C-alpha cells in the first residue's frame, strides 16, 4: 500500500537525501509544514515571519518499508532531545517532527518513540495542518550540489537497505 508521512529533522536537504536512497521509498519532496502562513518562502522562515518546519514529504510502499522502519532510520540521524536545533542549524524551522494525515500513523509514531526513547524527547507528533513545497532549488539539493552542507550522515544506510543494493 502506498502511504505518505512528513518528517522534519533539521535542514531538509540531508533528510531528503537520506530517505530517497531507501528501498521502498517511492518519492520525496522538501517543503514547509505546520506553520502560520500560506505559501511561505525560505526567506520567510529565516526572517522569523513563518513558523513552519523544514519537512520532507515521503511517499513509500508500506509492503516494502513500514512506518516504524522509517522512524528507526529517522532516529539514526536526529537528536530527539534537541529543541529547534539539529547539527549546525538552529531555529524553529529546524525542529524535529512527525506530521501525519492518518491518525493511525500518529499513534504508531507515539508508540514507537515511547518504546525506544526517554520520555523527554522533543519530536513533535502532530496532524499535518499544512504543507507547501519548497522552492525548486531546494528539491534534491544534495544531488544538484554534492558538496553542500548536510548534518545527516548518509553512510548510516546499510547496503541492504539501499535501493541500489
Describe the structure using short key phrases.
about 160 residues, alpha+beta, two-stranded antiparallel ribbon, about 25% helix, about 25% strand, globular
First-residue to last-residue Cα separation: 22 Å
Strand order of the largest sheet: 7-6-1-3-2-8
Largest sheet: 6 strands, mixed
Evaluate the radius of gyration: 15 Å
Secondary-structure content class:
alpha+beta
Query: What order do the SSEs take from the amino end to the carboxyl end, as H and E?
Result: EHEHEHEEEHEEH
Helix content: 25-40%
- Measured by DSSP, the beta-strand proportion falls in 25-35%
Number of helices: 5
Q: Total number of β-strand segments?
A: 8
- Principal-axis shape: globular
Unreliable spans:
none
The residue-averaged pLDDT reads 96
Commentary on this structure:
By secondary structure, the chain is of the alpha+beta class. The protein contains five helices and eight strands. Strands 7-6-1-3-2-8 form a six-stranded mixed sheet, with helices on one face. A two-stranded antiparallel sheet has the order 4-5. The mean pLDDT is 96.
Topology:
Blueprint: E1 2-9, H1 12-19, E2 25-33, H2 42-46, E3 53-61, H3 67-77, E4 85-86, E5 89-90, E6 96-100, H4 103-116, E7 124-127, E8 131-133, H5 141-144
Brief digest:
With 165 residues, the protein is of the alpha+beta class. Helix content is 25%, strand content 25%.
Amino acid at each position: 500500500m502506498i502511504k505518505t508521512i512528513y518528517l522534519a529533522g533539521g535542514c531538509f536537504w540531508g533528510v531528503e537525501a537520506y530517505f530517497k536512497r531507501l528501498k521502498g521509498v517511492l518519492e520525496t519532496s522538501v517543503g514547509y509544514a505546520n506553520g502560520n502562513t500560506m505559501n511561505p518562502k525560505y526567506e520567510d522562515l529565516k526572517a522569523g515571519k513563518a513558523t513552519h518546519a523544514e519537512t520532507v514529504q515521503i511517499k513509500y510502499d508500506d509492503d516494502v518499508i513500514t512506518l516504524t522502519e522509517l522512524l528507526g532510520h529517522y532516529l539514526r540521524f536526529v537528536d530527539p532531545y534537541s529543541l529547534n536545533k539539529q547539527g549546525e542549524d538552529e531555529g524553529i524551522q529546524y525542529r524535529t517532527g512527525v506530521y501525519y494525515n492518518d491518525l493511525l500513523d500518529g499513534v504508531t509514531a507515539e508508540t514507537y518513540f515511547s518504546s525506544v526513547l526517554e520520555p523527554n524527547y522533543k519530536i513533535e507528533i502532530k496532524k499535518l495542518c499544512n504543507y507547501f513545497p519548497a522552492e525548486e532549488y531546494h528539491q534534491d539539493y544534495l544531488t544538484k550540489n554534492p558538496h553542500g552542507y548536510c548534518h545527516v550522515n548518509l553512510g548510516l544506510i546499510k547496503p541492504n537497505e539501499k535501493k541500489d543494493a
